[in-house]
Amino acid sequence: MRHCVRDVGSFERLLGIKLDQAERDAFHQTVSRFPMSITPYYLSLIDKDNLVNDPIFMQSFPNHQELIIHQSDMADPLHEDKDSPAPCVTHRYPDRVLLLVSNTCAMYCRHCTRKRRVGDLDSIPDKETISQGIDYIRRTPQIRDVLLSGGDPFLLSDDYLDWILTELRAIKHVEVIRIGTRTPVVLPQRITDDLVTMLKKHHPLWINTHFNHPKELTKSSCRALAKLADGGIPLGNQSVLLAGVNDCPRIMRVLVQKLVANRVRPYYLYQCDLSEGLGHFRTPVGKGIEILESLIGHTSGFCVPTYVIDAPGGGGKIPVMPNYLISWSTNKVVLRNYEGVITTYREPDSYEQAFCDRNCASCDLQLNLDSANEQELLGVEMLLSDSDETISLIPKGNERYERRN
Ligand SMILES: *Cc1c(COP(=O)(O)O)cnc(C)c1O
């Protein structure tokens, strides 16, 4: 970490290249807004003979286009700051929260969605601040899944992380803990035996990492993944769809297959967010759908990530896929498969629809009520239910409805 490359001189020296004056000027302008930090390991993967097209270079080295603010750009498109009921906490979904335990990363990814904060205060929140976040989780019993994020939680010392995990584990309603980290990609040396030994004490623990290109799956990072997997930690991967880096069905197919070969399950493929400074990385949504089209059916089901758009304004992740349902009648569904074969599924002639008033005690289906948490009906789920009279969801401020009142 001490040897992270943060200035253009060191960058040139280590790669043995020379940027021209215009490139240096552009660099200085860009880093005055969005700083640079590259681990020596990640820098060593850069192909200096083809800088402009190199996926490692593009993800790590400042691009002058980051300074172009597009009309759709927002500082905090996901409203993470607004959905924060306590320090370090983003609570968006009913049963899970983000706990931001570190304000720093091994490398500053150029496509960071929290770009507004990068380099602001490269720090680890103190115990007092994190305790306030943990207190919120303690007094909010519907939270059963806590996602440690940041920054990168693996930039904390083993002892400090051990303390956080121990505190969370002591909370009865917290069933699973997840950690999001890019260290297996940019600082695989961080995955030490000591770290894994500590993590193993806190099962069930899941880890999501962030590979975007097959070039990142080096011997070192594969070794790091193997250590984590051998520690019994289920591994997932979240990629971001990035123009010029991985917006190609063939690259994506190689990436997901290599991940699975290393016991990592592709989890999400993100449409690039509307954060400021990411304009040059964005692709149309159609590119993501095209990639999924080339994965679904063509390769193992568990190679296929869910393609999501994180809704601006804090709406959360919305899955998007190609359409497979072509038509529907009262007893037949018409579908198409990945090869283009159009087929039908005949639905049952009779199906006894059990009326559900959400009174599980009087239902014939077997459910152990002690272990089943009742959740409030929400959104479209509510429209589908028998037990709720709501027939439509009406946007706030709808004029037609306001006239009625
Ligand atoms: C992504 C995210 C989660 C976790 O979502 P999953 O779909 O369960 O992986 C939780 N909270 C916030 C704010 C998120 O952005």
Automatic annotation (TrEMBL):
The modification N6-(pyridoxal phosphate)lysine is found at K317. It holds the Pfam family Radical_SAM. GO terms for molecular function: 4 iron, 4 sulfur cluster binding; L-lysine 2,3-aminomutase activity; metal ion binding. The keyword Acetylation does not apply. Residues 91-302 form the Radical SAM core domain. SUPFAM superfamilies: Radical SAM enzymes. [4Fe-4S] cluster binds at C105, C109, C112. It comes from the Bacteria. InterPro entries: Aldolase_TIM (IPR013785), LAM_C_dom (IPR025895), Lys_aminomutase/Glu_NH3_mut (IPR003739), Lysine_aminomutase (IPR022459), rSAM (IPR007197), rSAM_sf (IPR058240). Its cofactor is [4Fe-4S] cluster; pyridoxal 5'-phosphate. Keywords: 4Fe-4S, Iron, Iron-sulfur, Isomerase, Metal-binding, Pyridoxal phosphate, S-adenosyl-L-methionine. Its EC number is 5.4.3.2. It catalyses: L-lysine = (3S)-3,6-diaminohexanoate. The keyword Iron-sulfur applies. Belongs to the radical SAM superfamily. KamA family. PANTHER family: L-LYSINE 2,3-AMINOMUTASE (PTHR30538:SF1), LYSINE 2,3-AMINOMUTASE-RELATED (PTHR30538). NCBIfam families: KamA family radical SAM protein (TIGR00238), lys_2_3_AblA (TIGR03820). This is L-lysine 2,3-aminomutase. It comes from Oligosphaera ethanolica.
